[in-house]
Design goal:
The complex is a heterodimer of chains A (201) and B (110). Chain A is of the alpha+beta class and 201 residues long. Chain A has helices at 4-29, 41-46, 57-65, 72-81, 102-109, 171-176, 188-200, and strands spanning 49-55, 84-93, 117-125, 130-137, 146-156, 159-170. In chain A, a hairpin with a 2-residue loop joins strand 5 (146-156) and strand 6 (159-170). With 110 residues, chain B is an all-alpha fold. The chains are: A alpha+beta (201), B mainly alpha (110).
Chain lengths: 201, 110
């Protein structure tokens, strides 16, 4: 005869195993729009200037309350953050060229290699020695043209920047920021040309 | 000797009835001085209430100031985050545009 305590324990262990399996399956099925940004303390120590911004939904809501509706830049910012749940920026400026290691960039780039993240733009300039990649995370729940995450990795000789935006990002809204923060028209047609050219190469 | 002292003391300490006007005289004197323990600090309740009020108003003001400072800081961070984002998008845009221009030149040359 089975001891009741033992049956309860077995049931609990089974349940926990099932929950763990379910969580693992869910996580592998789609990308996490919120990147796990590493601790860049070593980079910050070496940097002459560092920007470390963490704005979760609470802080975004607080910031939105202090945006001036009369100011065009503030109004554009308010428009841009509608539907956004978080903005995370890490940017380090150095006095010498490439004071950061490629490993620092790779640690983040690896997370963007998971299914669900799609590279939208890849820019490599040999002359300027810059590399900028723009990734979007497209969830099944999001509608067409709407991403639930955006990541920008920009490596320049004296600057290393990561931007991670979480939430319903409508690329059209980025267009509306044009002129207020210097955000350009991304001309998605050109990106497709670039993509096809890269494939040909 | 001892009995004599004892009787003298007993006679001296014997209960004596006060005279007829004693109670009135005592009451009259109490009224004249006009002081009762409750009236020693008449301003105390008002001072306590005022202090409590000032504390509440001050606390509310401090909380508002703190929230305002946090809000302005968050706003500043948001604008800075958007500035950095747009700066990097600019670089990407320039790269895409120059690539596109080169493509067009190649196509027109061919």
């Amino acid at each position: 005869m089975t001891h009741p305590a033992r049956s309860v324990r077995t049931a609990l262990v089974t349940l926990l195993a099932l929950v763990a399996l379910l969580m693992a399956t869910t996580r592998s099925a789609g990308a996490e729009p919120l990147l796990d940004l590493p601790d860049f303390d070593a980079l910050a120590d070496k940097a002459s200037e560092s920007v470390n911004i963490t704005l979760d939904s609470t802080l975004l809501g607080l910031a939105a309350r202090f945006l001036d509706a009369e100011d065009p830049a503030d109004a554009a910012a308010r428009e841009a953050i509608a539907g956004i749940k978080g903005i995370y920026v890490r940017s380090y400026t150095f006095d010498t060229d490439f004071a950061y290691s490629a490993a620092d960039v790779e640690r983040v780039r690896r997370q963007l290699a998971t299914p669900g993240w799609k590279r939208l733009v890849e820019v490599r300039s040999r002359r300027e020695r810059t590399a900028v990649d723009i990734y979007v995370s497209l969830s099944a729940a999001a509608g067409a043209g709407t991403a639930d995450g955006l990541a920008i990795i920009a490596s320049e000789p004296r600057q290393f920047t990561i931007v991670n935006i979480v939430g319903a990002i409508d690329l059209d809204k980025l267009h509306k920021l044009q002129g207020h923060f210097g955000v350009p028209d991304l001309e998605l047609e050109s990106e497709r040309k670039l993509d096809s050219r890269q494939k040909r190469e | 000797m001892s009995n004599d002292l004892d009787s003298k003391l007993r006679a001296a300490l014997r209960p004596v009835e006060p005279d007829a006007g004693f109670a009135d005289r005592v009451l009259a004197r109490v009224r004249f001085t006009g002081r009762s323990p409750r009236r020693l600090l008449p301003w105390l309740p008002a001072a306590l209430a005022a202090s409590l009020g000032a504390l509440l108003v001050g606390g509310h003001f401090w909380q508002q100031q703190r929230e305002r400072a946090a809000g302005l800081e968050a706003r500043q961070q948001l604008l800075e985050a958007l500035r950095v984002t747009s700066e990097k998008l600019d670089i990407a845009y320039d790269g895409v545009r120059s690539q596109s221009r080169r493509d067009d030149e190649e196509n027109s040359g061919a």
